[in-house]
Design goal:
alpha+beta; 4-stranded mixed β-sheet; 3-stranded antiparallel β-sheet; about 40% helix; globular
Length: about 230
């Protein structure tokens, strides 16, 4: 129980106190890299990989993700891309508002290098939380929002829409655990500055050097060892 910290947060304002007491809530958004690098990790268990093999796959994935992190540092940009080119979803930068306990699971899927922002800063540049709707509503939103001729309002709504299909209703599609946000433009790090970085322990020093203005770099392996 963090009663004293909760009361101190209440001193900053009622909303701050309420949010501080909700341990499943986060004021931060995280962009992780890279999804492609984690392909072999996502299938490691179902492919029967041993613990030693998984450790090797993780190291190899980190090498690929670190190369992307260096490119981001040199460009100063998190570049947008379409979450589904097949469905013609508009390009965006995807983020999660997961809490620290959920961070490790997200990193295993999306990559172990991250940039942490406040919701306030990304909202200011157009970032919005995704909405999760039934397939029938998604179909209608897509009809109105797909393609360059769509009105900006409907296209933006289509850009942040996701299908929700719970168990017992055919093919399950439930990504609500991702707590996803999307920014429909590139994120210029000089404009929306990250408040923290995330990296595997072996890369923390390098990440600090690549982004010297960011004071905090969260060591991912230490979080796991610590029991987060």
């Amino acid at each position: 129980m963090s009663t004293i910290h909760d009361l101190a947060a209440h001193a900053k304002g009622g909303l701050a106190g309420i949010q501080a007491a909700q341990r499943d809530w986060s004021p931060f958004l995280v962009h992780l890299t890279t999804y492609a690098a984690m392909k072999n990790i996502r299938t490691a268990i179902e492919n029967g990989k041993s613990a030693k093999e998984i450790a090797g796959l993780l190291e190899a994935a980190d090498v690929l993700s670190a190369a992307t992190a260096r490119l981001i540092a040199s460009s100063g940009t998190l570049s947008k891309s379409s979450p589904s080119k097949e469905d013609d979803v508009p390009e965006c930068v995807c983020l999660t508002e997961c809490t620290l306990p959920g961070l490790l699971g997200h990193c295993e899927r999306f990559g172990r290098f991250g940039w942490v922002f406040t919701k306030r800063d990304l909202y200011a540049i157009g970032g919005r939380p995704c909405i999760y709707v039934g397939a029938e509503h998604y179909t209608e939103i897509a009809k109105l929002g797909r393609g360059p001729s769509a009105s900006p309002v409907w296209r933006n709504l289509f850009a942040i829409a996701n299908v929700f299909r719970p168990p017992g209703n055919g093919q399950v599609q439930d990504f609500t655990h991702e707590r996803e946000w999307r920014v429909l433009s590139n994120i210029q790090l000089a404009e929306a500055a990250p408040v923290a970085l995330i990296a595997p322990d072996a890369y923390v020093a390098e990440m600090r050097g690549l982004f010297p203005t960011v004071k905090l770099c969260i060591p991912l392996d230490t979080l796991h060892t610590w029991g987060v």
